[in-house]
Amino acid sequence: MDLLVSPALTIPSAELGWRFSRSSGPGGQHVNTSDSRVELSWNIAGSPTLPDAHRLMLLTRLEHRLVGGVITVTAAERRSQLQNRQIALAKLSGLLAEALAPEAAARRPTKPTRASNRRRLAAKERRAVTKQQRRRPPAE
Fold first, then answer.
1. Which residues pair with 19 in a beta bridge?
2. Digit-coded pLDDT (tens) for 58-92
3. Which of 1, 30, 29, 25 is nearest to 76 (CA)?
4. Is the pLDDT of residue 28 over 70?
């Protein structure tokens, strides 16, 4: 089953590498015999289906998660291997979609309005008066 990341990018299932191992957590005797933990890996650096612009973007934005140009995602949340496979596919798809998303526009700083400045100063003055009234009167 191919992995649909975005309308522009679909990863063929032949490029995805699967590894299965025993998972920790609940499951009783069943957990000791079944390989329900899933590791899904994809070689970003060596993928022939990935355009060069996307490859460069993924390699730079996901560099902290890559080992030798390969991204690996694990899933062991469920007792079922099938469900963990689906979770791993969703995790990888989400990671790649987030990394390929265009960067948000830089925030343009704005100045506070004259009215908001007045309100801020008036509130500050009210607090100061309140605190002054809490003080002890000076001893004569």
1. 39
2. 999 999 998 999 999 999 888 888 999 999 999 99
3. 25
4. no
> How many Cβ atoms sit within 10 Å of the Cβ of residue 37?
21
The answer to whether residue 137 is domain-embedded is: no
Q: To which H or E segment does residue 127 belong?
A: helix 114-134
Query: Which residues in the chain belong to E strands, given as ranges?
Result: 3-6, 9-11, 16-21, 37-43, 66-67, 70-75
Q: What's phi and psi for 3, nearest 5 deg?
A: -100, 115
Give the number of domains in the chain.
1
Specify the pLDDT at position 9: 84
Strands 16-21 and 37-43, bridge-based pairing: antiparallel
Q: Is residue 65 part of a domain?
A: yes
For residue 67, what is the domain's CATH number?
A: 3.30.160.20
pLDDT-based confidence at residue 112 (cuts at 50, 70, 90): very high
Partnered with residue 107 across adjacent β-strands are none
Does residue 132 form part of some domain? no
